[in-house]
Amino acid sequence: MDDIFSTNQTRDLIPRIREFVETELIPLENAEHLTGNFSTVARILDQKRELVKKAGLWGLQHSVEEGGLGLTLCEFGQVSEVLAYSPFGHYTFNCQAPDIGNMELMHKYAPDDLKRQYLEPLREGHIRSCFSMTEPEFAGSNPTRLGTTAVREGDEYVINGHKWFTSSADGAAFAVVMAVTNPDAAPHRRASMILVPTDAPGFELVRNISIMGDASDHWGSHAEVKYNEVRVPASNLIGGEGMGFTLAQERLGPGRIHHCMRWIGISERCFDLMCRRAATREIEPGVMLGEKQFIQGFIAESRAEIDAARLMVLRTANQIDQFGAAAVRNEISAIKFFVANIMLKVVDRAIQTYGAMGITDDILLAWYYRHERGARIYDGADEVHKSALARSILKGYGLDVKKKAADMAATRA
Amino acid sequence: MDDIFSTNQTRDLIPRIREFVETELIPLENAEHLTGNFSTVARILDQKRELVKKAGLWGLQHSVEEGGLGLTLCEFGQVSEVLAYSPFGHYTFNCQAPDIGNMELMHKYAPDDLKRQYLEPLREGHIRSCFSMTEPEFAGSNPTRLGTTAVREGDEYVINGHKWFTSSADGAAFAVVMAVTNPDAAPHRRASMILVPTDAPGFELVRNISIMGDASDHWGSHAEVKYNEVRVPASNLIGGEGMGFTLAQERLGPGRIHHCMRWIGISERCFDLMCRRAATREIEPGVMLGEKQFIQGFIAESRAEIDAARLMVLRTANQIDQFGAAAVRNEISAIKFFVANIMLKVVDRAIQTYGAMGITDDILLAWYYRHERGARIYDGADEVHKSALARSILKGYGLDVKKKAADMAATRA
Amino acid sequence: MDDIFSTNQTRDLIPRIREFVETELIPLENAEHLTGNFSTVARILDQKRELVKKAGLWGLQHSVEEGGLGLTLCEFGQVSEVLAYSPFGHYTFNCQAPDIGNMELMHKYAPDDLKRQYLEPLREGHIRSCFSMTEPEFAGSNPTRLGTTAVREGDEYVINGHKWFTSSADGAAFAVVMAVTNPDAAPHRRASMILVPTDAPGFELVRNISIMGDASDHWGSHAEVKYNEVRVPASNLIGGEGMGFTLAQERLGPGRIHHCMRWIGISERCFDLMCRRAATREIEPGVMLGEKQFIQGFIAESRAEIDAARLMVLRTANQIDQFGAAAVRNEISAIKFFVANIMLKVVDRAIQTYGAMGITDDILLAWYYRHERGARIYDGADEVHKSALARSILKGYGLDVKKKAADMAATRA
Amino acid sequence: MDDIFSTNQTRDLIPRIREFVETELIPLENAEHLTGNFSTVARILDQKRELVKKAGLWGLQHSVEEGGLGLTLCEFGQVSEVLAYSPFGHYTFNCQAPDIGNMELMHKYAPDDLKRQYLEPLREGHIRSCFSMTEPEFAGSNPTRLGTTAVREGDEYVINGHKWFTSSADGAAFAVVMAVTNPDAAPHRRASMILVPTDAPGFELVRNISIMGDASDHWGSHAEVKYNEVRVPASNLIGGEGMGFTLAQERLGPGRIHHCMRWIGISERCFDLMCRRAATREIEPGVMLGEKQFIQGFIAESRAEIDAARLMVLRTANQIDQFGAAAVRNEISAIKFFVANIMLKVVDRAIQTYGAMGITDDILLAWYYRHERGARIYDGADEVHKSALARSILKGYGLDVKKKAADMAATRA
């Protein structure tokens, strides 16, 4: 039964992508590929990328003018869900974060030279990139607090700073770095985005941070990076001085939709695994696990929650398509915490359904359990989004909490 | 921002109804009307019904051929939400359960005589009706177990039985009674629906059952009823012998949508009350309740959950409009427990936000807290729907739990 | 199996009290007594009080010097649990709030005249009392904000103020009133407790506030009260000027233990009702409700949670006995929200287990559902206790949140 | 403030052990030791074991007759909590599962020869052991279903079977194997425990199963093992033929206490980490994370829950000490699911408090998150214990679910 957000594009694309994922990617799931270094499986995925190209599915997220399919965000969201049935889907289709965000950003705001040198090979999948924003010394709940600086000297910026969670930095060709260029401007006007080639002198990949047991490498890395007097041409600026936060916001709105749709794909995949187990695992002679109400409860609640989550996300994507991300900031906050929590509940129930096997790397579930716990943290922790959403609502009732807090901070200072 | 399920009809109707509810009904909320007997407020509401008629909003749920607006279920759902901002909305607009269900049922299946005698005055709001199905001796989780019988004697049925939760029986003109007419048929073919005037000899209203503190009366009653050798003409049969469950199912599908949309209206109303309180209640000099994160958490989670619930219900209504209720049985089960639980959480959070005032009848919340606890029970308890949904899903995975249980029951017997 | 907090006293008393409750009080539970006015059942309970006296169980909470049994708080807690198996237990044994708190307070701090005139008949059950602290205009989360004043004029206090939730005021002989006597002292030193006879001119019982459907009367009332130029002798002061908060704290520590043990008794009673239903309700031929895992989950989780709650409370009572309430303020905060939430969950599960019957007043559950929702609000809302507990813990880690907030308030002012 | 279960032994031991853990073990926590192979850190821990011996703390779990301290289970529980502040505590003190269980089992039931050859070096920490019970082909919820057989041939048993989750098998000197010796006996009398040296021909360590990202090795391994015609002397039988389940039960009762106390230690450790972070992490200039109510909620709820969990476990340990494990089977089921869930909630809240750092291996939390998810599965999944507890309670109400299920199974067969 077609759902309300289906379009001709999605009706055509989704079965093809689903088949690709099932045929080419799901068979790659095994303990070797689900633990340790990403580079192990990347070698195979790079071959699969050739199949994607042959199938005419490469670059499907791009606008028509970029040679893509011109999918709306709402359509791409539906595609993204299907890609997420495998942890290798987005990478194989070259629409993985952070590259997809960097491509979109550069397409809109990078000068032509940077486009030629970096965006084109990125689109082809010949290079990878990273996004260098988060800093260990400052809480992510207030992104305007940044220690990294980019000082203009002649035709260059000299960059100094300390970042972490610069995801996929290991092996990337360049980083888009968020740095303070205008320290005396208003807080939201202080930072800029600057492209830094990773082979620039002073770019130091301190380490791939071990996350939930894996330091990983390659696209799977989450690097700690230092910028030690790194010099880049002033023309590496993306989108104008002081526009860092504006661009970050523009990036994050659709980015959160991408995450959310990925989480729904993950939820559906784990739901499917859970049902398969429930239907086939014998717990007493002739009695299947799925006959037990505890398991039925897992299945029923998950079904309702995933459906709700998908509707919320596609509704929001649809509104972004119509009105822009700024108009639906509340809805974006809502889906960020709502969907992340549902996904983690579904993953958890699926593990419980599998019993001892559920915690092994013989089955995909542990991978999601480990690597998606961060979903409630990155791109705004649950608590940050809940508070933001509530304050925005309360403003409509005449209480401007943010303003009061700012006044308080001013008083304190 | 218009949402995806808006239509010209809803865009026209909803603001008018909302204004009516706010102007005419919300001012009636006070401890006197929110406790004790419904007849107290009914006197006032009957006057408001005249205003509804004047405003051309009477009978808005009816099909065009019945002189109504021909709203789809999805459109009526949106209207129903707005009516539910007041506990008096549906009654005032004469689209309250169980009358709305009885009207639809009789419109489709009653012989012309019954229509003339009962349906027409019911539509006009001159009489009320009730639906007599639930029995104290049998668990509602299996509706095919019924003790009430209707035995054909000549041109009459002779009805004997014991019912409760025959809601609104007090003062009703007639009951639609579910009774076994064909005890030897297959379980789902045993019962029929028969119209019984409440002044028929042998119809005994034992009591208005006290529910959560109120026995109430009039439309607000939930009666225990005995049928003692009640004789009615055979022509009082609605829809054919043995069709009782088929008709009940047909009634329950849209009925659950009606409930769910009502619950969303309740949730929105309580959400609004909660936000008003948060924005205006001073807890320390200069500090408002809404500045506290615990309260912000209540608001944010409620906002996300209510939005999700509405999308789920309207999506399901939309599918019923397109494909019929039988095609979306799973979705109906899902919304039944999903939405009821969200509503009760929102009501609870709103009470907590009001503190001591929240448990008083000075504010609407306690009314919903008391009278909607049943939402997780009536029309199928949470547990029944979760189990049904899961079993239906597992059937798609090759495990037919229901069949196994039936085989087991047969073996046991 | 005796548990760790049993003593010879509890081993002797508890079976006797349990039998009394089961024989004399539980049979009184019916819709008539569980709805409407308390005075209806009070007439019967006053006769039962005579049986309590005959059984030598009257006044069991008193110290030996007052002619009581000298139970420790930990022992009385265990007794209180058993009394709470019936909603009429505490009243019948004359150890109901607010009288029990007033008796203890007056025993320790009232001048002899007041003791003779008020305490003695109170102990005998000849009169009742109330405690008048909460005000509608000020959030209960900060008890130092009070609008009621008592101005010394000659040998009298002249009291003006507006209170609500002056529980049991209807028919009480006197109120202990919290009023500001020293407006210029430090916030915690401003208020005093003064005994006000309810027949004093200017004492106005505005109304019995309708709570969750019942305004009730008599001991069951929660009154709104106005003090209009009420004059009482200065000797009606209890415990010294400015000692109001100190006495309130002293009263609240054991008072919260009393509440918590009562809640455990309620939980046990509902648990018992739930299990009886599960074991005997047939849902299919030959299949009992208790065979269903959803219900088993309700039972198992409730069992674990109630046991945990009891241990927490008795441990805390035991520590109060040893070290005083001030030393275990954190533990008291913890049990206040922990136990209230467990009770409400158990009540809710029991209702769900009973299905439609669970929401009727044919069974005790709806009474607790309605009248104990306030448990998460009165004597400090969940949110207040959670915040207080966390701040106290964080102080041990070097973060003095309270001090920071105070500094901020000072800055703001 | 001493708590009710403290004894002179615990008052003496706990500060000494706590200091050891803090000084010697906590500094070992780093990404290198918290990921990958256990053998890396084992080398260091083996040196720490010498310090334990020097400090006279070696073997503290043993009875006096074994040269230990003769701690009660309730006392050892308190010690075990403190050991669990570090993931390396139990190993370093040689009271880690499965060795501690094997030592106790062999002390009671092994013939003298086996004691001399295996138990003595095990006590000294010169060898390690494993316990081989779980089988991939059969659900752990019914432990009487076993595929592994031990057939008596002359003076030998010939063992064939397939096991997994034979924890710590890698490098162990012997396994205690559960195998069917008496296939025609009643289900609970079919299996026996037999000691199998790991160098016996036919003992095949198939692999160390990768769990949540780590296959690990050494004590940290969870092995898949095949027994291919393994021959051992008949005198390797522990405790008599057919006694396998009886011994397993005897082992599991205290074993679950051990687990639960370990989980409380983990909870306390994570609680401490959470509070440290909350007190010191600046989120805005001058504003600490712990000032936020969301975080305060995490702290307060965790504090209450951990305290409740500890009381539940020590109460149960105390009862086992007094009445034996068989008498408190219900209490053991209750703590198994109650405590495991609390621990996992606390770990999760601590991670959320740390934000991005919380998912890194720079801090201990991710280790517990990954390696303790199994707590809700091993030694009886939540669902198994909930169902068992509820059925046992319902038996007291006259409903024997287990018997009905058995009758049903018989009917089916």
TrEMBL record, chains A, B, C, D:
Q: Which residues form the Acyl-CoA oxidase/dehydrogenase middle domain?
A: 130-209
Species, as recorded: Nibrella saemangeumensis
The yes or no answer to whether the keyword Flavoprotein is present is: yes
What family does the entry list? Belongs to the acyl-CoA dehydrogenase family.
Name recorded for this polypeptide: Acyl-CoA dehydrogenase family protein
UniProt cross-references to InterPro entries, sorted A to Z: Acyl-CoA_dehydrogenase, Acyl-CoA_Oxase/DH_mid-dom, Acyl-CoA_Oxase/DH_mid-dom_sf, AcylCo_DH-like_C, AcylCo_DH/oxidase_C, AcylCoA_DH/ox_N, AcylCoA_DH/ox_N_sf, AcylCoA_DH/oxidase_NM_dom_sf
In this chain the Acyl-CoA dehydrogenase/oxidase N-terminal domain maps to 9-125
Acyl-CoA dehydrogenase/oxidase C-terminal domain segment(s): 242-394
Subunit annotation: Homodimer.
Required cofactor(s): FAD
* This protein's UniProt keywords: FAD, Flavoprotein, Oxidoreductase
What Pfam families does the database record attribute to this sequence? Acyl-CoA_dh_1, Acyl-CoA_dh_M, Acyl-CoA_dh_N
The answer on whether this UniProt entry bears the keyword Oxidoreductase reads: yes
